[in-house]
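Posting for a labmate who doesn't have an account.
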Amino acid sequence: MNISVIRKFTVLFVLSALLTTVISCSKEDEPSGTTGEIQGSWKITGLYTKSGDKEIDNFEDIKKAYPCFPDIVLKFNSNGLFSGTMAAACEILVNSIFGNINESKYEVKDGKLIITSGSSTPTILTVTFNGNQMFLVDSSSSYRIVLTKQ
């Protein structure tokens, strides 16, 4: 085989490898949620459940059952602690979603919000952001929570 043909194949191979590396490192592969984005105070502004292929908005129904629901403020502190401010009547509801909110820690890793509370099983939610809104989806995609930064 001619040396110039081998050189052309080598150059072509190196360029192909370089192109593959550049394409596989695109911004789209980066995690959608980061700890810096989540820090601060948030209010729940939407709560949706799935029924088959339909997504049902439950926010108004929950407000009727729990009038304190729109006033809940969830806080993600820079030290990794997760807390909330709410009326006692709403604490049971929030704890059923996030675990014991008064003893919780959080971390954001690979687009997942991981909330740990004492010795209980962690709550793991997919987290994404769009402007001043945060979207949390449970692993089975049976519910979606929309939060708005305060």
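Reply:
Got it, the structure tokens are right above this. Helices lie at 3-24, 35-38, 59-65, 88-98.
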